[in-house]
Amino acid sequence: MSEPGEIRKLDEVVVNRIAAGEVIQRPANALKELLENSLDAKSTNIFVNLKNGGLKLLQIQDNGTGIRKEDLPIVCERFTTSKLSKFEDLTTISTFGFRGEALASISHVAHLTIVTKTSNNQCAFKAQYVDGQLKGPIKPCASNQGTQITVEDLFYNVPMRSKVLKSPTEEFVKIANVVGKYAIHNPSVGFVLKRQGETVSDIKTNANSSYVDNIRAIYGDSIAKEVFEIEHEDDILKFKMHGFITNVNYSTKKQVFILFINNRLVDSTALKKAVEQEYSIHLPSGGHPFVYLSLTLDPKNVDVNVHPTKHEVHFLHEDEIIESARKAVEAKLLGANRSRVFYTQAKLPSTSLNIEAEEALLQKLNTSDRKVRDNNLVRTDSAVQKLDKFFSSHCKDAEKEVPEKVIRRDIKLTSVLSMRREVCIECSLALRDIISDSIYVGLADIEEVLVQHNTTLYMLHLKTLKEELFYQFMLFDFGNFAAIKFKNPLSLSALIDIGLNDPDFDFDQIGRSKIEIKEDAVKRLCSKKEMLIDYFSIEINGDDLCTIPLLLENYVPDMSRLPSYLLHLVCDVNWKKEEPCFRGICRETARFYSYCNPNDDIEKYRWNVEHVLYPAIKKHLKPPKKLANDKSITNLIGLPTLYRVFERC
Fold first, then answer.
1. DSSP letters along 341-376, please?
2. What is the model's pLDDT at position 22?
């Protein structure tokens, strides 16, 4: 047997280089640390000079308070800082650099030179460092107030790190990304980024400029014209949010998400995903927004010491704060949508207007001082042309059967109230606004509906929307359903037989014969008949099914799925606990009612969608946020974009 290896203490130089590699992963990390030190020093102008993407030369110069001559001998030693004196100070830290590792780490993987001057000194002082230690004497020199830090030959003693880094061009792009983000967040500070040997700066912002000016300077005029300010404060969670986000007219293939928490540039996958979710409702597939957000939290609630590069932070009530921020973005986008002005399209000549509408329309047209372009027209009435015009025939009005009036009961079951509350909490206001204010365009496919909201065309996946609609009907009309009555009661045993022989029904009942399953199914349904008739209007008399609930007037589900529906009720519903039982029955009933038979009369189905189903969806559906993620609601294109495409043809 082999002997265990001897455990030895690593040499301090090796330990420091390992630690440095964790903190300084690439030139952009080093620059981020140095930028934060300059901002902590109250600089109003910061100049960054690069060579070979920062690998050969990375120099930053500021006009801040500088470093005292007395502190220069230890400034590059690990865990030396002016920000902390005891561990408890971490709970209230509000500055950028706080662990005293940045300069120390850089000095272990590069040649580091510091030139600094404070307001109390007659001259500046220059010092050089190797592996955290001062190399040679501190020399007086000439320089302006502030600090200049020069980093040369980064990773010269860690060859494997330099080999795995990107090309100098790509490293420069990452550095420019960092500088640009800090410039946007600090409009009172002037930033310059320049590559050595170049006469023109790659980034240049002026001190005391505006947020929008810096967004324009960094990301261009096309984004700057489309951003608007967002502000939000939550007294309960004790946080504030400020930022600039693009409106729903703008989208780009590459997302720009800039997040600062307590003035520190960080990442938050959860917040980023939440904001993306809100925009996905409005933007076309593959489109992304520009988002800059700055969150201010109570320092006591933030753990800033969880990642070597400090690009991640943890904080208390993270989920609640993200949800509050998401709702603020949602409300802002919704308000921006509603505040936009659109021109409306007059009805076709053959359609008469009432007097009030005609006068309002004439007044609007007469006061307009410019021609309304076609790409700004908004569908405003169901009488305007729809896709149905291009089909050969139309369905006539369906016969309406008005159910007997049901005396509503006030259901106070905790389980039902909880499920109703869940629907309300999960409802997306933005999706609700789109659907409730949309105009039906036509049926693109058997389960795909085109609608127009303002000047944007959306594709809606009808089956998902129908299932959600009928599920919500089941919850909010719980115990108050009218009934669809069968002229001749249907045998439960025969229905279950049909369901068991349906090749589409997938059931996992290992070790049981179909006869046993059928007998148990009939027995289960009959044993629950009092509850089924009382809450769900499912009447069972003897071994016969007499009624099922009427969820929507003039709508009858596909009865060919009734056997499968009954089997799912028996096999897939948890009948032992109240809330899972009610939830399961509601879900299975919603799936049954939302099924679309592809063999049905397409003309009748099209009429049903336009005149029965979609009006109910518009009026009653509380769309959950998940519909934006699963692409049940897809932004196809905006009319201005569509017209630009045709103009090029």
1. --EEPPPPTTS---HHHHHHHHHHHHH--SPPPGGG
2. 57
Give CA torsion, residues 510, 512, 513, 516, to 10 deg.
-140
pLDDT for the residue numbered 402: 41
First vs last Cα of the chain: how many Å apart? 79
Q: What is the mean pLDDT of the chain?
A: 81
pLDDT at res. 46 = 97
Q: Which residues contact 378 (CB under 8 A, 6 or more apart)?
A: 342, 343, 344, 345, 452, 454, 455
Residue 364 token pair = 């609007």
Sketch out the chain's domains with CATH numbers: 12-211 (3.30.565.10), 220-339 (3.30.230.10), 414-634 (no CATH)
3-state class (DSSP) for residue 243: strand
48-52, 88-92, 585-589, 619-623: segment of lowest average pLDDT: 88-92
Alpha carbon separation from 359 to 174, 348, 368, 436 (Å, rounded): 59, 16, 14, 26
Reported as a pLDDT band with limits 50, 70 and 90, residue 390 is: very low
Q: Which residue has the higher pLDDT, 85 or 81?
A: 81
Separation of alpha carbons 262 and 139, rounded Å: 37
**How far apart are the C-alpha atoms of 552 and 467, rounded to whole Å?**
13
Q: Please tell me the predicted confidence (pLDDT) of residue 93.
A: 46
- The C-alpha atoms of residue 494 and residue 96 are separated, in whole angstroms, by 74
Token pair recorded at residue 280: 């996905």
Residues facing 117 on adjacent strands: 146
Nearest to 441 by CA among 452, 433, 432, 430: 452
- Name the strands in the sheet holding 448-453, side by side, starting at the edge strand that comes first in the sequence: 439-445, 448-453, 456-461, 633-638
CB 585 within 8 Å of CB 574: no
In the block, tokens 């949602």 appear at 330
In angstroms, the CA 198 to CA 36 distance is 25
| Nearest C-alpha neighbor of 555 from the set 495, 474, 470 | 470
Can you tell me the distance from the alpha carbon of 636 to that of 457, in angstroms, rounded to the nearest whole number? 6
Q: Whole-model pTM above 0.90?
A: no
The whole-number pLDDT of residue 9 equals: 57
Q: Which of 131-135, 230-234, 394-398, 493-497 has the highest mean pLDDT?
A: 230-234
Task: Please check the confidence at residue 231 and state whether its pLDDT lies above 90.
Answer: yes
Lowest-confidence segment of 113-127, 142-156, 265-279, 312-326 by average pLDDT: 312-326
Indicate if the pLDDT at residue 313 is higher than 80.
no
**Both tokens assigned to 450:** 């085109």
The span from the CA of 345 to the CA of 316, in Å, is: 51
Phi first, then psi, for residue 356 (nearest 5°) are -65, -45
| Residue type at position 94 | S
| Tokens 């079951």 belong to residue | 413
Cα 43 to Cα 146: distance, rounded to the nearest angstrom: 8
Category of 394 on φ-ψ map: left (φ > 0), alpha (ψ -120 to 50) or beta: beta
- Strand 539-541 relative to strand 544-550: parallel, antiparallel, unpaired? antiparallel
- What is the model's pLDDT at position 508? 58
Alpha helices, DSSP H only, in 25-166?
A: 27-40, 102-109, 159-164
